[in-house]
Each structure stands twice: as C-alpha cells, then as structure tokens.
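Case study B.
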Amino acid sequence: MTTLDNSLANYEHDDAAELAAARQAHIVSIATPIATAVALVALWEIGVRVFGVPSYIAPTPSAVATTLVTEFPQLMRNFWPTFYESVLGFIVGNLAAVLIAVAFVHSRMVERAFFPIAVFINTIPILAIAPVLVLIFGAGLTAKVVIAALICFFPTLVNMVRGLQSVSPQTLELAQILSASKSEVFWKIRLPSSLPFLFSALKIAATTCVIGAIVGEWVGADLGLGALILDATFNFRAALLYATVFLSSGLSVLLFAAVSITERLVVRW
Amino acid sequence: MPAASLRNAWVKFGQFTAIQDISLDIEAGAFYSILGPSGCGKSTLLRLVSDLIPAASGEVSVFGKTTEAARLAREFAFVFQDATLLPWRSALKNVELPLEMGRSRSIELPVSDKTPMELLELVGLKGREDALPHELSGGMRQRVAIARALVCKPRLLLMDEPFGALDEMTRDHLNLQLLKVWQETGVTILFVTHSIPEAVFLGQKVLMLKSHPGRLHEIVDIDLPYPRAIAQRETPEFTRYSAYLRQQLEAC
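Model:
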C-alpha cells in the first residue's frame, strides 16, 4: 500500500514537474529572441556613443525612436501610399498568377506556350524593369502597383500550378467512378487541394510586394516610404531614414501576419 | 442476373497484357476474395469492372448493363487501399461526397435508405462525424471510406486491398465489421487481398489469379459457416483451406 501511495505521489509529482518544465521551456523560447534583440539594440546604442559615430551616419536607437514619435505624421503620410500600392499589387499579382495557373493546369498547350515567357519575365531583375514600367505607366500609382504585382506573380504561379496538380491519382479515380464533371473536380477537389500551396506563396508575396512598391517609389514618386527613404538619405537625416526603414519592415510584418491569420482560419487540415 | 459478368475479357497496356481471356460470372449477393501473386492483375480486374480502364477485347457487364451505364447509375462503389478522403472535409462531409458529385448528368442517383449519419454508425464511427481525416486513425479513415462507398446504395462493392496498410488487430476488427456490413446491406463484394487468412476468413469464394499474364486460375469455395468469428481461424478446416491456397499460390 505504501509503495502504491509512493508511486502515485511520484506520478503527481512528475506531472507537476512536467507542467512546470513545459511552462519554463515556453518562457525561454519567447524570452531568448527578445533578450537577444534588446541586447543588440543596447550594443548599438553603446557602440555609437563610445566610438562617437556622427549622427548623420548612424543614429542611436533612442534617436530613431524619438524620430518615430516626432515625425509620426510625416511617416504616416508616406506610409499609406506604400500600403495601398503593396496591397493592390499583392491582389493583382496573385490573382493573375492564380488565373494563369488554372489555365496552365487546364491546358498543357497553354502551359507549353506561356511558361517559358513567365520564367523569362521572372529572370529580369525588378530594379531593371522598374524604370521601364514607370515610363509606360507614368509616375502615378499604377506603375508601383504593376511592379509590386510583378514581384508577387512568379512564386504564386509556380506554387499554384503544383497545388492544383497535387491531387492523388486515387482521388481522381474516385472522381471518375462518381462520374464527376471537370468543373466538379476543379471546385470540389483541385481548388481546395491547392490552398496550402497557395498560402505558402501568399506568405512570400506578402513581404515581396512591399519591396516592389518601394522600388517603384525609388524610380519616381513624391510620396511613399520609398520616396521618404531617398529624401532622408540625400538630406543626411539618418534617424528619419532608419525610422522609415523600420516602418517598411513593419508594413511587411503586418501583411505577413494578415496572410498567416487568414491561412489558419481557412486551412484547418 | 450475375452482379458482374466477363466474357473473354482482355486488358492490354501497350504491348503488355495485364489480363488474358477471363470469363467469369460474379454471383449477386456473394462475397468473393481475390487472391494472387503480385502482377496477376487483381487491381486491374477491379478497374476493368469499375469502368476505370477499358477492355481491349471481350465483354464486361455489371448487372446486365455496360460498365459505363453501371457507373452512371452508381451500381458499384470502390474502396481503395488508401482511404482517399478529402482532408478538408469532416468524416460526415466525406461520406456525403458521392451525393454532391456527378449531378450534372441529370440522373436520379440511388440513395441508401440509411442516412450518411446512420452509415457512419454502421461502421462504428458514431460521435466522430465532425472529425477531420487527420484526426482519425488509419482504420477509422478506412471505415469512413466504406461508409462513403455505401451512400449511393451500390449493389456491387469493389475493394482493392482496403486493409493492406493496417496493423493486424485493426484488420481483424475491420474484417468483422465488413462482414456485418455485407450481411446488413446484401451488397455483392469483390475483395482483393494479399493475405491468405484474410481471403479465407472473409470470402464465400476465393478467386485465384495467375500472373504473367494475369488470368483465372481457380475458384475455390470456402464452406465455412457465417457469422464468422476470429476463433474460426484456429479450426482445422480453416487451416486446410489456407494450406491449399498457399500451395496453389506457390504453383502460380
């Protein structure tokens, strides 16, 4: 009896210890990257001060933080155009990629004709093609949307084609036995099968579309984070430049998080 | 009328002969096990009957109809080795899939007198209807596939090594459950397997095929009473059938 009690007590003890260990592991896994980031920022602050780096070359993190607050209205004024360009580019580029992927899967002929062209377009550096697009579409919103769309296009095309083809031969045999029509196979089997692949691509696109918008703004824009980056650089306003860079990365994180949350809601399997 | 009837049926893949001159009547309501060495065309035979592949020559009919007409009328259903469930659909939604497909043909589909929910209950999955396939074990997934196969009230059930990937205990359990389903629904079953004990345990008849090229070797009647119980596998009769089939298989 005593032995049994002992072993029971041991079990309970083990359970509690296990829970505590799990909690600790969880805290450590969150705390480690945060602590590292804080340490690096501190190192940066100390480094700039100790070595007396001029503030127009490298500002202290505290100066960047101050700028983020004082220049907030100006930053926001430049944030929204970039936000719209990125999101519109994301929508246009991915929509085009999905539709073309559907056409590719539907017809081998179309794929054979257009896939090499898609690959070719993808090999052109975005920085090289951006001026061409600004020449064609002018300095307005359109050129930036097109550039952002272009940068999203290829990864989504490739992933979506793979996704639509990811249906197992047996599942297709099942559809055949059920006398399913082509459109039933597409809507009920192929499209849902492709969603995990599509979301992998959308996560890539969520960050690259911001790059596209900013590159577009570099080539010609009065407003936008890209324009502000150039402006701050040429006026030696290093703190503003850094603040803008952080805001750009914040925009990417925002879009990435939005896609990730949507994925979790849609792809539950 | 036989459930399925083959007359001098040949199947060729290019130069390769997969099935050579099989003539055979499948008795309605019976349980057939199909046994044979690999490459003997067991799966091909099921795919021929289910209109997935055409016969190079000869005739195949299912309940007196062409295989295509039988497919459109949902005379048969197929259970694959893999459960082939759609991973984004719940167990119940997977069972309902056949009711949503093939609608464009404007044919009145036969529907089981059991609801999809009752079919899940029949295969012992009551309470798991909302589970997604990845939340179910391999055996449970295969049971969902069986319920799905029954939803349009087929008169012929084609099963291609459905329990081949499962462990011994699960397989025993599902064998019993399948016999229960067979007795309750009166469906004709063609059951492909690699396992001699499984073939003897389930079938009223064992169709033995020979390989290279695939052709009919022998039809062995299994005179063991139903309902069958796992313990029957220890009886001398059972062992005799197994030994005989093993001998024949080695000769193939």
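The first helix of chain B runs from residue 42 to 49. The remaining cases will be described in the next quarterly update.
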